[in-house]
Amino acid sequence: MADSIYGLMARFDSASEIFHAAEQVRNAGYKHWDCITPFPIHGLDGAMGVRRSHVPKFSLIGGLTGFTTGMSMIWFTGAFDYPLIVGGKPYFSPLFAFPISYELTILFTAFATIGGMFLLNWLPQHYHPVLKSKDITRGLDDTFYVVIEARDPKFDLARAKALLTQAGAKEISELEA
Amino acid sequence: MAHSAHSEHAAPAILAEVNPAPLPRATLVESKRSFNWVTEKICGIIEGPTPRWWWISFAVSCFVASFTVIGIAYLVSTGVGVWGHANPVNWAWDIVNFVFWIGIGHAGTLISAILCLLRQKWRTSINRAAEAMTIFAVVCAAIFPVFHVGRVWFAVLPGYLFPFPNSNAIWPNFRSPLEWDVFAVSTYGTVSVLFWYIGLIPDLAVLRDRFYKAGNKFKSALYGFFAMGWRGSNRHWSNYEMAYLILAGISTPLVLSVHTIVSFDFAVSLIPGWHTTIFPPYFVAGAIFSGFGMVITLMMPLRAIFRLEDLITQYHIDCMCKIILATGTIVGYAYGIEFFIAWYGSNPYEGFAFINRAFGHYAWAYWIMITCNVITPQFFWFKKVRNNIVLVWILSIFVNVGMWFERFVIIVTSLARDYLPSSWGYYSPSAVEIFTFFGTFGVFGVLFLLFIRFLPIMPMAEIKAVMPEADPHSGHGDSKH
Amino acid sequence: MSTHAATISSATVSASAPASSLSGSANKALTLGIIGLVATAAGLAVSGGKAVAFSYLTGIVFWTGIALGALFLVMIHHVFDAGWSTVLRRQFENWLSCMPWLALLFVPLIISAFVAPGMIWKWTDPSYDLAQVGGHGTVAQDVLWVKKSGLLSTTSLVIATFIGFAGWSLLANRFRTHSFTQDTDGDIAHTHASRFWTAVGLPFTALSMTLCVILWVKALDYHWYSTMYGVWFFAGCVRGALSVGMIITVWLWNRGDYKGILNNNHMHSHGMLMFAFTVFWAYITFSQYFLIYMANIPEETFWYSLREINTDGQFNTWGYVGFFLLFGHFVAPFLTLIHYPVKLSKTWMPRIAAFIAFVFLVDVIYNVMPSLKKITGDAYPFTSINLLWIATSVVGVGGVCVWAYLNSFAKTKLIPIRDPRIGESLTHHE
Predict the structure, then answer these.
(1) What is the mean pLDDT of residues B404-412?
(2) Local structure of C185: helix, strand or coil
(3) Which of A26, A51, A141 to mutate to test the interface with B (most CBs of B within 10 A)?
(4) If you average pLDDT over residues A103-130, what whole number do you get?
(5) Residue B271's closest CA among B372, B410, B381?
(6) C213 in Cβ contact with C233 (< 8 Å)
(7) What is the DSSP letter of C373?
(8) CA–CA distance, C214 with C212 (Å, rounded to integer)
(9) I need a surface site. Which of A39, B242, B352, C194 has the fewest CB within 10 A?
(10) Residue C346 pLDDT more than 70?
């Protein structure tokens, strides 16, 4: 049984090595696996087969909400709840309501984007097997790791190790769950 | 050069003739440093002992900041009359200082957002500090409009600035640009903090792990709390980068809108010299101009103290100088167009307002403004000037001074000489006003010193990402994407 | 570069073949252009000098705007030491060959200021009777003209137009010469020379373009003033040029020239620029409108009122044009260009580009044509026979521009092969 371990963590020393290793792991058909990199590597998403992020959808919803909030707030306060003529302007006009609606669009988009990012990444997550590894310091500094999780249906300790070795791993360690 | 390999069709013959003339790009990290060197360098600043100069600067900044605290306490307890404004100049140093500080903040967002969208990779070395500068500048800016209402509690009571239901059953006036300002500046402050924080997360995780390894459990837990359990997962990076790009995308129109709305404060009015349609882009260009002035003023000493010459290279300084040159020239264009249209519009009041600016009682301020904002940056045409760090630093101070005077000229000259000669006046600041403004530099200094002591002053992950080794195709002929 | 060497033999064939058909297309464009110009001239007999002159002014301002936009984009490329756009820059350099021809095509308008003063720009004739356009007295009696007479005269019109076109043609010539010569000698000095001309050219073009657009367009209604005007025109010009650039790009792609040169990322970056300038245009135009609306001073608002309501309070056709600009020039491009797949689509992008170029034309029409006023002071409606003369002028001037472009295209390399940034441009990623 492989469930006593979380998975395998294999070290690679350069961006180009992990890039090629990721392609091989992807081609081997694994689903639950990841790369640990100190910085986003250009093109690694493609090499891993990660699809384009869904964050923009959150942003769009946030933006639309913000704009609607701004417009309706200004209409409600100025033209509905307490109509008051100021400066010879109409009770409501999208023109003078625009600056504030615009700001609220951006404000709500920002919150939705960040919220969406945290949600999709399932953060904050202060406990994680990878974080327990003694190597994580280097993983955030100058080294690159591929982690294959044991829960992957294709996971087999020996074969995964062989794959990683073949992909050029410098060192392979087992992560405890 | 892999495109030919991927294309189904044969490559056009022209590709065989391609033979670029050599003109190497400047490297962004000099001396061929490693990833680890970057980590050690930047974390080392936080992990090392607190230097003596830091304590001295911190003490001085606290002392200077106390001027603002005392000045404001005196204002709140006595009344807004302790400041120098009186009819007809009811907006004076307070609004000048507000616009000045807000403008300074803009360079931070420009560097982090607009340059990110333009893929100007040189931004990475300076964006963290510049974003911090933005936030602290917004803090300094917000002090002034809030306190110039005098009875400051009105600014925070429900229903006055923000639309909460209140006992008077009235709402803020959404037709007023001042109300737009409330939303613009508070959105700007909030989004800047969020953007800054998102950028910090991977670097905080680095510090978390390093402190853990060094056995400092408390600091590790503290940095770890804010690092949100970041573990460098590429699946996370994918969403993270998208979120970062979107934040950059929305911060760009945000930063433009903030100074645009600040310019609306003036431009929707009928005061001669204020109502002119070029104000929005002109204010934005001016804000970027002053902000870069401040970035240089701050970064040059940091670069020298922390020996960051490999990260903030001559190329970075060149770029910043050129932006100052460009925006300064745009501001010059706006000054020129304003003058021209004041004549062309043939409105006698407009015409007078501009003649008065240049040759009236405040001509000294006008010519300081022209000298600092239009003439000073022209020195940056010359490579010799840009290579002289001390001179660059001195010129950046001129830029800061000039942009303060620009707001002074716009606000005070127009108000002091408006339509009715019987109500003309001459404004001079009071001692309280001067010291309150002086103190905000201390407030800024305190915040900035805390920042450089406790947070990574450069985004490590982003710097690493622009180093040549970060390209997975470096040294390989098999590029594809 | 070794990989390319291996593929030369198979691909050389396609590059030389279209050369003859290209000169054919160039001749067709010129023929079309001449037909357009002749048709415009024939319009003089139908609608009279004034309406046709305004229409022709619209056409020439539109194409001059696009050429200026191309000039700006070339200079912006140099000033940023940009990499990815090197491939695209060559086509803008080709496009710039139309600059002297535009100067030539502008000459009839200048001549009209002498032959029929007051026909286009009222102030070219101080004795012009303003009663014809809903005013009173003559131009010479108009205090606003008297104040501005130092600028608003035939002499300054001629001088400004001459300086403008001479300078732009010189700049166009310099950028073209240096870039094309570099193809053969590979001398880095050409890159430095281009940067020098950029440093000179940017401030010069900014100022001369502002002055020219003020005299040509804004001063059609010389009472009105707005400091934003030059910036508005700049935004429109760059949008026009980017659209033309996109159409050329996809045309070359479909012809097969760009296979192996252009990739998705060029499309994406180009689309991003179009998007950015859409937002910039909206920002400038909104700010100008908004500030005038909020301040509500009659000296300024009349310009927009003319374009919305008649003197009897009736909503007029120009009001719809205004709304069309809001949606067509901002909302529609914004909502389409924001999508990532759209920016990569070689089907959608040329259509969007053509649409943006078309709406830029409508924007120019919106600025020029309402100054053609009835005796009541109202603008002639948007929908009139003048649209035909605008169309013939656009085809006429445009035909000449396309002819000049194709001629230059046939004579130059497809991409600047010795440019120091060409390698970067060919491997543009992200």
Answers:
(1) 93
(2) helix
(3) A141
(4) 93
(5) B410
(6) yes
(7) B
(8) 5
(9) B352
(10) yes
Q: Per-residue pLDDT averaged across C99-126, rounded?
A: 93
For B359-383, the pLDDT digits (tens) are 998 999 999 999 999 999 999 999 8
Residues B242 and A120: their CA atoms lie apart, in Å, by: 12
* The pLDDT value given to residue B308: 85
> Could you give the angle at the alpha carbon of C83 between the alpha carbons of C79 and C88, nearest 5°?
90
pLDDT, tens digit (0-9, with 9 covering 90-100), for B177-230: 999 999 999 999 999 999 999 999 999 999 999 999 888 999 999 999 999 999
- Looking at residue B12, the DSSP 8-state letter turns out to be P
Yes or no, beta carbons of A109 and B231 under 8 Å apart: no
Confidence of residue C189 (pLDDT cuts 50, 70, 90): very high
At residue C8 the predicted structure's pLDDT band, cuts being 50, 70 and 90, is very low
Cis peptide before A124 (omega within 30 of 0): yes
Strand order in the sheet with A171-176: A33-36, A144-149, A5-12, A171-176
For residues C309 and C376, the answer to whether their CB atoms sit within 8 Å is: no
User: Residue B373 corresponds to which amino acid?
Assistant: N
Which residue from B4, B177, B280 is facing C260, i.e. has the nearest CB? B4
Q: What are phi and psi of C346, to 5 degrees?
A: -80, -5
Which residue, among B350, B320, B340, has the nearest Cα to B108 in the 3D structure? B320
The mean pLDDT value of chain A amounts to 89
pLDDT tier, C430 (very low <50, low <70, confident <90, very high otherwise): low
- Is B15's CB within 8 Å of C191's CB? no
pLDDT of residue B307 exceeding 70, the answer is yes
Q: Whole-model pTM?
A: 0.88
Q: Does B117 touch chain C (CB under 8 A)?
A: yes
Share of chain B above pLDDT 70, in %: 95
For residue A52, list chain C residues with Cβ-Cβ distance below 8 A. Answer: 340
Residue of chain A nearest C430, judged by CA positions = A42
Name A147's bridge partners.
A9, A34
In this predicted structure, what is the pLDDT of residue B12? Answer: 66
Q: Which of residues 32-51 of B touch A (CB under 8 A)?
A: 34-36, 39
For residue A56, give the nearest of B172, B242, B461 by CB distance.
B242
Rounded-to-integer distance, Cα B247 and Cα B337, Å: 34
Structure tokens given for A153: 């249906």
Please tell me whether residue B42 adopts helix, strand or coil conformation.
helix
| Per-residue buried b or exposed e for C174-191, using 16+ beta carbons within 10 Å of the residue's own CB | bbbebbbebbeebebebb
Put simply, the chain B residues between 246 and 275 with a CB less than 8 A from any chain A CB are 246-247, 250-251, 253-254, 257, 261, 264
Per-residue pLDDT reduced to its tens digit, C235-282 = 999 999 999 999 999 999 998 888 888 888 899 889 989 999 999 999
